[in-house]
Amino acid sequence: MEFRYEIEGGNFSRAGHASSAVKKILKQLNVDNKVIKRVVVALYEGEVNVVAHAEKGSMMVDIDEQRIRIRIEDSGPGIPDIDLAMQAGFSTASAAVREMGFGAGMGLPNMKKNTDQMHVTSEVGKGTQVEMITWFRQ
Amino acid sequence: MKVRDLIDKMGLTLFSGELCLDKEISGGYVSDLLSDVMGNAAEGQVWITLQSHKNIMAVASLKDLAAVILVKGQAPDTDTMAHSIEEQVPILGTDQEAFETAGQLYHLLNA
C-alpha cells in the first residue's frame, strides 16, 4: 500500500497532518502499538523539518506486511554537512521557529532513534531526501 | 487519576476538550521543546508547558497524551482549541509556574 502526502513549507498550522493521517492508517492495519509509537515520532520530525526548512515537500509511505518505508523529499536549501546535522543540538532553524519550541536540534536524531534504518541524501540549493524503514516484527 | 479529578484537585481552568476528561493519567512531562516531548513523553501523561500555539495539539495527539496544562496564565488561541476538540486532548490552564504545577501533579500522582 502506498500513500503520498504533500507538505507545505513554512505553514506550521498544518504541520502534523500527514503524520496524523499515517498514524490512523497504521492503527487501522493493527500494527503493533509500540511500532506505531516509534514511527509517529519519525514521521512528525520529518514533516516538521520540511515545514521549518524547505519550500515544499512530500511524504511517501509504503506499507507491506513486514515493514513501513517512509520517504520524505523536499525542495529547499539542502544540508551542507549531514553528519553535523545529525548531531543532537545542532540546528539552523530561525529564531521565530525556535521560539515556538522547534529547532532544538533533536529532529534528525529523534528520527534515527525511532526507525530501524535511515538514510539521508541532500544537495545544497536543491533539497533533501530522507528514507526510513521500520520493521513490524521488532 | 482521571483528567476530570485533576482539574478539581488543582483548580485548573478547562479551555477545551470537556468531552474527553475521563482519560486516565499515567504521569507528567514538563518541557517547552516540542521535539523533546515528541521523543520522550509517554502515552497518558499530562504535558506541562508555556507553549500555547496550535502545534502543541499535533504533538499531544500523536503521543496520545491525556491533557496539556498551560502555565503562567497562557491561553490557547481559537485554532489550538479547535484542534484540541478535534483530537480529543483537553487543554487546561493555571496561573502558576511550571515548577509549582509539576510539584502538585507529582504529589497528587504519588500520594
TrEMBL record, chain A:
Gene3D superfamilies: Histidine kinase-like ATPase, C-terminal domain (3.30.565.10). InterPro entries: HATPase_C_sf, HATPase_dom. Residues 45-132 form the Histidine kinase/HSP90-like ATPase domain. It holds the Pfam family HATPase_c. Transmembrane segments: none annotated. This is Anti-sigma B factor RsbT. It comes from Geofilum rubicundum JCM 15548.
UniProtKB/TrEMBL annotation, chain B:
It comes from the Bacteria. Gene3D superfamilies: HprK N-terminal domain-like (3.40.1390.20). Homohexamer. This is DRTGG domain-containing protein. It comes from Geofilum rubicundum JCM 15548.
